[in-house]
Amino acid sequence: MRVDIISIFPEYFTPLDVSLIGKARQKGLLDIRLHQLRDWTHDVHRTVDDTPYGGGPGMVMKPEPWGEAIDAVVGAATTPPRLVVPTPSGRPFTQEVALEYAKEPWLLFAPARYEGIDSRVMAEYASRLRVDEVGIGDYVLAGGEAAVLVIVEAVGRLLPGVLGNAGSVADDSFAPGAMADLLEGPVYTKPPVWRGHEVPPILLSGNHGAIARWRRDQALRRTIAKRPELAARLDRRALDKRDREI
Ligand code: 6GU
């Protein structure tokens, strides 16, 4: 997958050099290219923002640098990228969206600072690219850069060959299938007793059927306790009799 990121803070993305995503890049599974938005300004101050029409606090990102930058990155590509614009007013970025993005050959991120990008930029590209405004949660960040890090990590780990153990994607909280809408339960490793706390004996039993049942029970209990609105969405028909007793 190719990923381009246009930002006034390309140095914000050094975390993408390390760990899982860094290794995926070294392996050639992920081709991440960073661009300085100010390279597409033409004034001595390399200005990217201006005051909002209609008044109000803060500044808005000017359309011209974004237009030139996006045109330059997209070039004459026959299969253009999906343009992802992180904004708290976008549709929610969920595991479902991550799975959708993981199928794309090319993503272009346009993270904004200040109060956002002049809306005509999204209108202009909507006729040429698939433009997706997405938010990562119900809170406000100082800019879209941290959201891009979140999205790239969520998508990158889903790409074939990135995770050592392919099974771990299927067991994720929110993964479609048996664990849909369920939070993952607690996990344990050696030693069997630590500071007096025991590992639940069922996990040492070797009874794989009973262990799977126990894990599902734990996932249900945790979901009910921590995410009641998710638990309410669980399809009663998908719950078996033992689930419904929890
Ligand atoms: Cl994508 N951007 C900003 N600035 N704040 C956010 C967000 C994005 N998602 C949640 N809050």
Automatic annotation (TrEMBL):
Location relative to the cell: Cytoplasm
Gene Ontology, cellular component aspect: cytosol
Major location (coarse): cytoplasm
Record flagged with keyword tRNA processing: yes
Position of the signal peptide: none
Enzyme Commission code(s) on record: 2.1.1.228
Sequence positions that bind S-adenosyl-L-methionine: I136, G137, D138, Y139, V140, L141
tRNA methyltransferase TRMD/TRM10-type domain residues: 1-231
GO molecular function: tRNA (guanine(37)-N1)-methyltransferase activity
A biological process term (GO) from this entry: tRNA N1-guanine methylation
Assembly information from the UniProt record: Homodimer.
Protein name: tRNA (guanine-N(1)-)-methyltransferase
Originating species: Sphaerisporangium melleum
UniProt gene name: trmD
